Amino acid sequence: MTVSVRNLTKRYGRTLAVNDVSFDVAPGKVTGFLGPNGAGKSTTLRSIVGLDFPTTGEARIDGSKYIELKAPLHEVGTLLDAKAAHRSRRAVDHLRWIAATHGIRRSRIDEVMDIAGLTSVAKKKVGGFSLGMGQRLGIAAALLGDPGTLILDEPVNGLDPDGVTWIRELLRGFAAEGRTVFLSSHLLGELSLIAEHIVVIGQGKIIADAPLDQLVQTSSVVRVRTPDVARLAALVAGPGIMTTTAAPDHLEIEGLPVEQIAQIAAREQVVVYGIGQVTRTLEDAYNDLTRGAVQYAPQDAESANHV
Ligand SMILES: Nc1ncnc2c1ncn2[C@@H]1O[C@H](COP(=O)(O)OP(=O)(O)OP(=O)(O)O)[C@@H](O)[C@H]1O
Predict the structure, then answer these.
(1) Which neighbouring-strand residues pair with 25?
(2) How far is ligand 1, taken at its centre, from the CA of residue 92, in Å?
(3) Given this model, what pLDDT does residue 296 score?
(4) 261-264 LR contacts (CB < 8 Å, sep 24+)
(5) What whole-number distance in Å separates Cα of residue 53 and Cα of residue 38?
(6) Which of 9, 43, 154, 183 to mutate to test the pocket of ligand 1 (most atoms within 8 A of CB)?
(7) How confident is the model at residue 297 (pLDDT cuts 50, 70, 90)?
(8) Nearest residue by C-alpha to atom 3 in ligand 1
(9) Which own/partner pairs from 245-249 qualify as long-range (CB within 8 Å, at least 24 positions apart)?
(10) How confident is the model over 29-40, as pLDDT tens digits?
């Protein structure tokens, strides 16, 4: 199932929350949705699943608008607010209530509770759940109809390390079956372990839509760990080559391939403890992309130290 967003614009009064956004979410992989606070992620996700009506433009799931789907739970599983469950209801009753809307069999409720690790708290009231347990319940609900697509807003939030590993494996497995996964998250390190494709939104506009590999592609900088930084810097010096001492025993070299640097070091008998290309993290890529698109930031570096 492909999720297609076309020229989606959403205004709330004077606020232009989403501004002419178009992108596709492909099946068979996990797609991450990133952006600063207030960038328009939740509005976009809510518009995809018919909880918000676009001012103009549209979102379709395999060609249909969400509201046109005959049995939406079997097509799209959603988690948009982990606190949405009724506080006085028991976890199992929350799932029974949702299952009843689609005639989903009772045994499926046990299955999803088991998948989400909630079997032992099935009869506990949701009001007593932690954020992480609420997330697990929300994911169990999203899985109830065994859908082809999952749309999740911040599903990793509040999960403990076991929970983070669990959801990573769950979502990757889901995508490996050819299904579609679209999730937002501010946890960039975790997202780079889950997602293969990344869409970045800033101030209501799409500012990147690319495979993760492409965003974090290896830079041309080589970092060498050596006790002889000054000597190696002098040996590799030449036109178009930049060297930076990154730490007392770390030299960064731009403009020469790693093999050539290793050969120079070997030939000149410079001791090397480690050598390799510097890789950009998703966080580096995100910071570069969203510079200028952050709405809610401290006024200056000085105030940043005081928040
Ligand atoms: N129901 C609403 N009424 C008025 N303004 C809204 C409403 N929902 C969102 N907005 C505004 O639209 C903009 C986008 O909000 P949205 O919640 O989509 O951002 P987000 O990227 O999900 O942010 P966060 O990372 O903080 O969750 C913000 O300026 C927000 O204040």
Answers:
(1) 3
(2) 31
(3) 66
(4) 261/222, 261/224, 261/236, 264/232, 264/235, 264/236
(5) 18
(6) 43
(7) low
(8) 12
(9) 249/225, 249/273
(10) 999 999 999 999
How far does the centroid of ligand 1 lie from the alpha carbon of residue 210, in Å?
24
- 168: tokens are 């990573």
Segment 61-89, tens digit of pLDDT: 999 999 999 999 999 999 997 677 788 88
Query: pLDDT digit string (tens) for 165-219?
Result: 999 999 999 999 999 999 999 999 899 999 999 999 999 999 999 999 988 876 7
Give the position, in ligand 1's atom list, of the atom nearest the Cα of 186. 25
- Which one of 5, 8, 9, 12 would you pick to mutate in the ligand 1 pocket, going by the greatest count of ligand atoms within 8 A of its CB? 12
> Given ligand 1 and candidates 42, 191, 205, 296, which is best to mutate, with the most ligand atoms within 8 Å of its CB?
42
Q: Is the ipTM of this complex over 0.95?
A: yes
Helix ranges, 144-196 (H): 161-176, 188-194
Angle between helices 131-143 and 91-100 (to 10 degrees): 30
Residues near ligand 1 (Cβ within 6 A): 12, 15, 17, 35, 37-43
CB 42 within 8 A of CB 184: yes
